[in-house]
């Protein structure tokens, strides 16, 4: 497949993509043209069709798959496709895997890890609460599939589950350094902080917001879900309820980031910072991959990080140590890099 991320100026493009936006517009010279945005799982690109724009536009809608023929070109610093032809493609003839990325981790394995962690929680009320969520078949089916976000981080099938597992590992590691931390509350808070996203987001051909997601947001929805499930655990303490809800309401950290409250307990502070860390590192790595950034080069400007990002060369000392460990002193430079990548994941 000619992925969008791989297109270069001058490439002849003959491929099927998903239409995410569609508009018939008029140029300054009075000529009508079709403007659409085409997408696959590697990114999006603008498409322009100048011949028979009105007629062609009537043959497809937004969220349809279309097969286009045209030339990739650079217009004012941005890649676009000057389309020659466009035809609608039936959904049944499209491999959806080309349009929806999935977590690199196995979802069933992550669920088993999550269940083991829930069983390790010593506080009986929190343990029962986590089991109520884990035993909810409808919730778990959504939880295994929903992304953690539409665009910013872990924005792929299984992304929310991956993000939650990542966050649990991070907060439990950090919590070990502070004897005053309630590890059970910390673990439960990390597990439940984003559960509202199973109702905020939906996955069809693309990741979209639901109506209640747009109107209420995942923090409000998650608060409702926690309240409902706590009601199924007999005798759940009021103080514990309040603390767990506080972690939910404050995990974005600041009012300007959509947090109704700012963190005011230790566990909420840790969840806030580690949640941010998980999201930003995932976004960083995804940006390097999607922009094909080589060692020693920079990304374009990142909105999430509010800066350009640099991909540093592999640590030469570490590379030498890994080479010795492998007993491969005479490998070529390319072979060394491949060996390090395959065995230690330092290169992507």
Q: Helices and strands in order, then pairings?
A:
Layout lengths: L11 E15 L5 E9 L2 E7 L3 H5 L7 E11 L2 E12 L17 H14 L3 H11 L2 H9 L13 H17 L7 H10 L4 H4 E3 L3 E3 L1 H20 L7 H13 L15 H25 L6 E6 L4 E5 L4 H11 L6 H12 L4
Parallel strand pairs: 3-5
Antiparallel strand pairs: 1-2, 1-4, 2-3, 4-5, 6-7, 8-9
Helix pairs in contact: 2-3, 5-6, 5-10, 6-9, 6-10, 8-9, 9-10
Helix percentage: 40-55%
Shape: elongated
Which structural category fits the helices and strands?
Answer: alpha+beta
Terminus-to-terminus distance? 21 Å
Enumerate the strands of the largest sheet in spatial order, edge to edge or round the barrel: 1-2-3-5-4
Write down the overall mean pLDDT: 89
The top-level CATH class of the largest domain is Mainly Alpha
Q: Could you tell me the number of beta strands?
A: 9
At the third CATH level, what is the topology name of the largest domain?
A: Hypothetical protein af1432
Tally of discrete structural domains: 3
Radius of gyration from CA coordinates: 24 Å
- Total DSSP helices: 12
Oligomer: single chain
Portion of residues in beta strands equals 15-25%
Poorly predicted segments: 344-348
- Biggest sheet: strands, sense, closure? 5 strands, mixed, barrel
CATH architecture of the largest domain: Orthogonal Bundle
Order of helices and strands: EEEHEEHHHHHHEEHHHEEHH
């Amino acid at each position: 497949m000619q992925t969008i991320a791989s297109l270069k100026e001058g490439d002849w493009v003959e491929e099927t993509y998903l239409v995410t936006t569609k508009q018939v517009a008029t140029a300054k010279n009075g000529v009508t043209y079709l403007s659409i945005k085409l997408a696959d799982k590697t990114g999006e690109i603008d498409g322009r069709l100048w011949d028979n724009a009105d007629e062609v536009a009537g043959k497809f809608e937004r969220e349809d798959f279309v097969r286009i023929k045209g030339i990739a070109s650079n217009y004012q610093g941005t890649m676009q496709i000057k389309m020659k032809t466009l035809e609608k493609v039936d959904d049944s003839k499209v491999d959806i895997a080309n349009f929806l990325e999935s977590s690199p981790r196995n979802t069933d394995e992550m669920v088993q890890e999550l269940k083991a962690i829930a069983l390790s929680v010593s506080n009986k009320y929190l343990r029962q609460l986590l089991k109520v969520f884990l035993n909810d078949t409808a919730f778990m089916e959504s939880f295994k599939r929903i992304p953690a976000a539409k665009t910013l981080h872990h924005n792929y099938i299984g992304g929310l589950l991956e993000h939650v597992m990542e966050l649990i590992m991070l907060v439990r590691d950090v919590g070990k350094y502070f004897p005053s931390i309630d590890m059970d509350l910390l673990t439960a808070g990390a597990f439940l902080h984003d559960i509202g996203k199973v109702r905020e987001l939906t996955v069809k051909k693309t990741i979209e917001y639901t109506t209640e997601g747009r109107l209420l947001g995942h923090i409000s929805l998650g608060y409702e879900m926690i309240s409902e499930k706590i009601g199924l655990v007999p005798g759940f303490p009021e103080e514990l309820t309040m603390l767990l809800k506080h972690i939910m309401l404050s995990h974005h950290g600041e009012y300007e980031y959509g947090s109704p409250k700012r963190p005011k307990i230790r566990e909420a502070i840790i969840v806030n910072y580690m949640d941010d860390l998980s999201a930003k590192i995932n976004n960083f790595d995804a940006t390097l991959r999607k922009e094909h950034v080589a060692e020693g080069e920079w990304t374009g400007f990142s909105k999430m990080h509010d800066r350009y990002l640099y991909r540093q060369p592999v640590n030469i000392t570490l590379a030498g140590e890994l080479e010795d460990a492998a007993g491969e002193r005479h490998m070529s430079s390319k072979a060394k890099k491949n060996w390090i990548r395959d065995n230690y994941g330092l290169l992507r």
